[in-house]
Amino acid sequence: MTVDEVHPRSRTRPSRDTVLFDGHCRFCRGQIAALRRLDACGLLEFMSLHDPRVADEFPEIPPEQLLEEMVVVDRQGRIWRGASAVRYLSRRLVALWPLAVPLHVPGTLPLWRWLYRLVARNRHRIAGTCADGGCRIPS
Q1: Residue 128 zone, left/alpha/beta (φ > 0; ψ -120 to 50; rest)
Q2: Where are the domains of the chain?
Q3: What is the pLDDT of residues 69-114, one digit of tens each?
Q4: Which residues pair with 22 in a beta bridge?
Q5: For residue 45, what are the CA distances in angstroms to 24, 29, 98?
Q6: pTM for this predicted structure
């Protein structure tokens, strides 16, 4: 872990790494469906930020942040956000190991963060807006 990746901790230490995502977002749901398929060993739990348990179990993670980026809380309570969460998952899921190499090239994390934010900001354009407008990212 680089100095750049020092993570705050959650008071909750989940029994499985927990992926928090925007369950109202079509793009996000598609990515989570892919992760579920790749998680052959059942290492991950998935929770929509709209699930009331998220606020109870992870009160230190602001809901606004969850609307902007995926968050993973690992079993030690470390909080991984955005591109760092993707990098973390690339080490945990065997099916993602091929991505771990390019994602962990020293000095590239700023590039991956920029790319992650670009996709996150435009996710409603990529996947289309949801009927209820839930995919809109607050300005």
Answers
A1: left
A2: 3-127
A3: 999 999 999 999 999 999 999 999 999 999 999 999 999 999 999 9
A4: none
A5: 17, 14, 22
A6: 0.83
